[in-house]
Design brief:
CATH architecture: 2-Layer Sandwich
Helix content: 25-40%
Number of strands: 6
Strand order of the largest sheet: 1-2-6-3
Strand content: 25-35%
CATH class: Alpha Beta
Number of domains: 1
CATH superfamily: RRM (RNA recognition motif) domain
Number of helices: 3
Largest sheet: 4 strands, antiparallel
Radius of gyration: 15 Å
Low-confidence stretches: none
Structural class: alpha+beta
Shape: globular
Length: 101
């Protein structure tokens, strides 16, 4: 591994982001979308995906998602922001979440 501790890499990926947009992106660009730790970097995300799913990663793109403002009566609160990673896999590679790898 490229200098990252295995414990750190296990905490980088939080969950696969399954939505209509994520499914569309997955089919069109061979990308998988993950919810990741807010302090995660691109090299860490790449190493974590390669370690956990035994696939080759071509590139990683990151987006910070701002939390929405919500009201509960008069009280205005805000949901937490989070980080999303679009992981492009090399041709011929795939991650199957349904199989429970």
């Amino acid at each position: 591994m490229s200098g990252f501790s295995q414990e750190r890499l296990m905490q980088v990926l939080l969950a696969p982001q399954i939505s209509e947009k994520a499914t569309f992106v997955a089919e069109k660009n061979e990308q998988v979308v993950f919810r990741v730790s807010p302090c995660a970097t691109k090299p860490e995300i790449k190493a974590a995906v390669e370690l956990l799913f035994k696939v080759e990663v071509k590139s990683v793109q990151i987006a910070n998602v701002k939390g929405k403002q919500k009201r509960f009566g008069r009280i205005i609160g805000r949901r937490k922001g989070w980080k999303k990673a679009f992981v492009a896999l090399k041709p011929g590679q795939e991650i199957n979440f349904a199989a429970g790898e």
